[in-house]
């Protein structure tokens, strides 16, 4: 029982550490869902599960030695949230409503995958070291914590101050969050330095 609790605690700690920035993204999406109707709340929850599931699945496959991810090229996924943010800025420049940066389940999943591409580097050595029983515990903890993350973001997204802030500055704040996330992904992945080397 002690081993089970320790395994679950380790899984929770790793999930929290690698997905803390998802709270901000999910909150922005839930505010947009409340004010603009897109994406729908179920799109957000299902998209988050799909995105996290894809990241964990990729990590398990890499850990099993069945696939090699071309590091740091996964950092190019940062272009997805940048593109979504720029598109929202251009589409809603003359509107007071917060832009629907992501309007579908697959869009939410795509942003989750892009935002978590660096998580794979953490998950791979972890899953490589786990036996099947411990791996199952990790997967169950991750699944439970996705629900917790979505619930916390939904609560934040319904808080009057958060709603007012997004209402006042949503036309630029929401796209800026996505553009900022994309820039962080590009810079922290090292892909820009690799591109500079190739260009030089």
Automatic annotation (TrEMBL):
Keywords: Membrane, Transmembrane, Transmembrane helix
Domain of life: Bacteria
Statement: the UniProt record of this protein carries the keyword Transmembrane: yes
InterPro entries: Cd-R_transporter (IPR004676)
Pfam families linked: Cad
UniProt keyword annotation of Membrane present: yes
Transmembrane annotation, as ranges: 6-32, 44-67, 102-124, 136-157, 169-193
UniProt name for this protein: Cadmium resistance protein CadD, predicted permease
Native species: Micromonospora inositola
């Amino acid at each position: 029982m002690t081993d089970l609790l320790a395994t679950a605690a380790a899984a929770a700690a790793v999930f929290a550490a690698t997905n803390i920035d998802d709270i901000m993204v999910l909150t922005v999406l839930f505010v947009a869902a409340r004010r603009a109707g897109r994406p729908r709340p179920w799109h957000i929850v299902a998209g988050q599960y799909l995105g996290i599931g894809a990241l964990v699945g990729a990590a398990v496959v890499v850990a099993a030695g069945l696939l090699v991810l071309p590091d740091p090229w996964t950092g190019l996924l940062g272009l997805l949230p940048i593109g979504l943010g720029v598109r929202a800025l251009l589409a809603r420049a003359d509107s007071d409503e917060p832009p629907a940066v992501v309007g579908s389940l697959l869009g939410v999943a795509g942003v989750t995958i892009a935002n978590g591409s660096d998580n794979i580097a953490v998950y791979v050595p972890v899953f490589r070291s786990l036996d099947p029983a411990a791996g199952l515990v990790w997967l169950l903890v991750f699944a439970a914590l996705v629900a917790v993350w979505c619930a916390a973001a939904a609560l934040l997204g319904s808080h009057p101050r958060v709603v007012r802030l997004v209402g006042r500055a949503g036309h630029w704040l929401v796209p800026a969050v996505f553009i900022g996330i994309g820039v962080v992904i590009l810079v922290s992945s090292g892909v820009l330095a690799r591109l500079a080397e190739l260009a030089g």
